[in-house]
Amino acid sequence: MRTEVIAVGTELLLGQIANTNAQWISQRMAELGLPVYSHAVVGDNLDRVAGSFREAARRSDIIIVTGGLGPTEDDLTRDAGSMILGKPVHEHAPSMERIEAYYKKNNKTMSLNNRKQSHVFDGAFVLDNKEGMAPGQIIQQGEVTWVFLPGVPREMKALMESGVIPFLQRSFSLQSEIVSEMLHFIGIGESDLETQLQALISHQTNPTLAPLASEGEVGLRLTATGETTDEAKAKIAEMKRVVLDKVGDFYYGSDDETIESTVQRLLSRHGYRLGAAESFTGGKFIERMISLPGASAVCQGGLTTYTAEMKEQVLDIPKYLIREYGTISHECAEMMALNTQSLLHVDAAVSFTGVAGPDSSEGKEPGTVFIGLQIRDKSPEVHRFQFQGGRDQVRERAVKKGFELLFHHLKD
Amino acid sequence: MRTEVIAVGTELLLGQIANTNAQWISQRMAELGLPVYSHAVVGDNLDRVAGSFREAARRSDIIIVTGGLGPTEDDLTRDAGSMILGKPVHEHAPSMERIEAYYKKNNKTMSLNNRKQSHVFDGAFVLDNKEGMAPGQIIQQGEVTWVFLPGVPREMKALMESGVIPFLQRSFSLQSEIVSEMLHFIGIGESDLETQLQALISHQTNPTLAPLASEGEVGLRLTATGETTDEAKAKIAEMKRVVLDKVGDFYYGSDDETIESTVQRLLSRHGYRLGAAESFTGGKFIERMISLPGASAVCQGGLTTYTAEMKEQVLDIPKYLIREYGTISHECAEMMALNTQSLLHVDAAVSFTGVAGPDSSEGKEPGTVFIGLQIRDKSPEVHRFQFQGGRDQVRERAVKKGFELLFHHLKD
């Protein structure tokens, strides 16, 4: 069963907005077990809209069209649909009443164009649009199921949830249940993970395994089908066990868990409070923690000691240490972590000092980073890294690495 | 001249990410005078990728493909391209060297898959990828110009700017010169701006005026064409004058300028150094400043005093003040700004205290925000706001408002 999403609207082709409708529909359809095979975007031109409908009808079983149902002359989905489906349109009385009532209520004059928004194809199953003007429509034409929805995201989503999804579930009597889990790994690259899981990724069909790299992390999506949700869940659990046997050292959580929320959970479990001293990362590390609801229970705050002067004055880094070793040094990172622990009265202190670039600093090249850790009464630790990339990436990678180091300390 | 953008990647069809690459490319191509006629998204499947290439070749003159150039078995753009173009691939030596150097420098083992990333089509014009592994490629095949780019947005954008756009300008000897300028406004809403510029937006054709709202700001893109660049620039300059006559109070800069870089420039002009004390914003304000190259000249650093304890201990906010007024108060914001100025030895100090939500705090509802300002020996100022939205939006809006307040102080 092949599903395709067509978005109609020149604003998408001018890049004024991103096609987030296709993204949202794709997520919901994948969850439903009717995966989307392609997206298309076409501008407000009758021939091209009709052409894209014609092509879609050749290759897809379910075609979901968004946009082009508004009141203006540029809204051509109805006209193109009429051509391709060979069906005239007529006024849909309940929609027309809704539109008239809206204009009356808001003391606005209704133009003739607004009537157009109530037009539906003959024989269409009409979905009332409680959020706006133009109704949704579903039409079966030969083997193809057509769905027409307004382009306004709020209206589109409401019609999908209340009308389209229940219709598709009934029509395709979707029996198999789909369950998926996204496993998150840190400290291992995408190609390393793939190499270690090569055989599973290539040969497994239920569950399937799909790796997805993002900045400093790798995700692995397991997707299983079964006759019941429990059966699908059991398949996921079994495969997760096999995967974690191989690469479990790098696994930190699943689905909505992030490395920040995982660190928050571990801090809370240990009853630890966290503080940080940050130089070139500018406070990004502690800001990530504070962005989480409930942060105040585990997070005291941080010092953004960007200049040497502030490291001395606020963080009590001795002048001689900076003169002797510089601020971008093992020694400075260690002292930053130590002093943060005592000054902020925290159990776990993390420090960052380094060169974000683009220029070198203190004779150290861009990407040179020292991260210090001081946890309870353990000995302080300092790790040195050489990160690639521009200013933002170096900062981003250092922050992520800080979470990784803290995670490894706290998980044991 | 019809341009088409094809994005390859199942992650797009699962809805894991939105197709922001197509959006960005469409914007740039529209500016270039080579408007995009359609977008397509296809999954990681050889037949379907090849099928979408075949269809594109039938209808488009310029085809820009993003994604599917990575090292994994799912990366099929090279294989599909080879089939459709009828051209074998070969290793591109400079790219291979770059990849090898990366692995050597990072002490990582290079897998065989990684070699694949250096493969290019025979006869392709190769664009060095300074931001990543796989190079960009341009191939002329009959009447069609093919462009292949990595899917990582940063890499794609760099290759477009440095290689693809100059190539297209040369090849299609784009005659009319296009010049555009994006004017940035802060402190005025999109609909207010539109109302004030209504007549110009509706009737102007050269330059055109296109408003674009983003979080807490509004942009207005002026785009003019002329026989020469100078002619187009003169049209922009004249229209800019007309626009600023009407809404110049809210204008802070153009094009790549941001409110942060504008504040940095103004601080530098005054010879001021900046510091901040932040509670619920978590250090986001000062982090934005430090993310700019050259920040150390104007930015001392900041204190993320998230808890009441830290406000007392590090920022010397008296216990009685907190007991009497609470931490989310006019009084606390004022004292935070004052003490930041003296503790950090800065000319300009900004403080943030408030409730990000989701819960109320100290009897104040989510969105309640106090921003304090202490500049040189002027009297301290505190502004109270009630922001709408969730935790992230309240934090984001407060930070933006802090820059707006500072901008208005510094510009006079």
UniProtKB/TrEMBL annotation, chains A, B:
SMART domains: MoCF_biosynth. InterPro entries: CinA, CinA-like_C, CinA_C, CinA_KH, Competence-induced_CinA, MoaB/Mog-like_dom_sf, MoaB/Mog_dom. It holds the Pfam family CinA. It comes from the Bacteria. Residues 4-170 form the MoaB/Mog domain. Belongs to the CinA family. This is Putative competence-damage inducible protein. It comes from Halobacillus kuroshimensis.
